[in-house]
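Regression test case RT-17, inverse folding.

Input:
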């Protein structure tokens, strides 16, 4: 499996990595440190505003500021619309959409002029190809990622018009080589839409003009581009990282 982290040195870079899972977030921070970054890990529930305030305060106090915020937390479940449980639907919106909203809200407060960090910066929101097109049995997830897409554009326009120095863009990956990607493909078999994994993979790859899966590093490199000065005049954009999947 490809690494989600860029394969070059990160000397001098600083980052706070968060997740609800302590073991996983510590492992990610260790990998960043191995690449030369100063990285800290913190358990964080993205659906809780107080947790967001605590994380942002800790970032500014411990790492000297906040200039880039990546909203990457996400969950996915599949069900036909007639079988889609309303509580599960609400949970997916809470993590994927509300969590991103809270990240933007607290991040903008800190990054804008007069905020605790106050130097502007870049917010990168992870949406999905499923936030651009419809996918059978992916109702809750697609709705949440479509919400992230337009939330991103609204934040971008507002921050630009208020001259905050903050840019906001979204990334829209297709199926990525990952545990979540494997789970997504297995759902089609479990729902009786495809007979086996080989058939499922072939059907999806047939819809990707480049004929391969997205790698975690493809998504990570897009985030690095949107975070840095090379994209200084890009805001409110949606960047598909999908091998042409949504272009057909």
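Golden output:
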């Amino acid at each position: 499996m490809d690494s989600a982290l860029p394969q070059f040195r990160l000397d001098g870079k600083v980052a706070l990595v968060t997740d609800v899972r302590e073991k996983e977030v510590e492992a990610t921070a260790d990998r960043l440190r191995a690449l030369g970054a100063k990285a800290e890990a913190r358990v964080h529930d993205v659906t809780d505003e107080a947790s967001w305030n605590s994380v942002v305060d800790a970032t500014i106090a411990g790492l000297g500021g906040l200039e880039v915020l990546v909203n990457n937390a996400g969950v996915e479940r599949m069900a036909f619309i007639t079988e889609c449980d309303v509580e599960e639907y609400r949970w997916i919106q809470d993590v994927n959409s509300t969590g991103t909203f809270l990240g933007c809200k607290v991040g903008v407060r800190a990054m804008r002029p007069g905020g605790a960090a106050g130097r502007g910066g870049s917010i990168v929101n992870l949406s999905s190809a499923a936030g651009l097109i419809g996918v059978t049995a992916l109702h809750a997830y697609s709705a949440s990622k479509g919400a992230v897409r337009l939330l991103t554009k609204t934040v971008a326009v507002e921050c630009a018009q208020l001259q905050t120095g903050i840019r906001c863009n979204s990334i829209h990956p297709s199926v990525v080589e990952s545990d979540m990607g494997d789970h997504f493909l297995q759902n089609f078999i479990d729902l009786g839409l495809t007979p086996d994994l080989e058939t499922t993979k072939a059907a999806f790859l047939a819809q990707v003009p480049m004929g391969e899966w997205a790698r975690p590093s493809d998504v990570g490199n897009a985030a690095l581009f949107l975070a840095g000065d090379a994209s200084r005049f890009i805001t409110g954009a949606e960047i598909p990282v999908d091998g042409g999947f949504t272009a057909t």
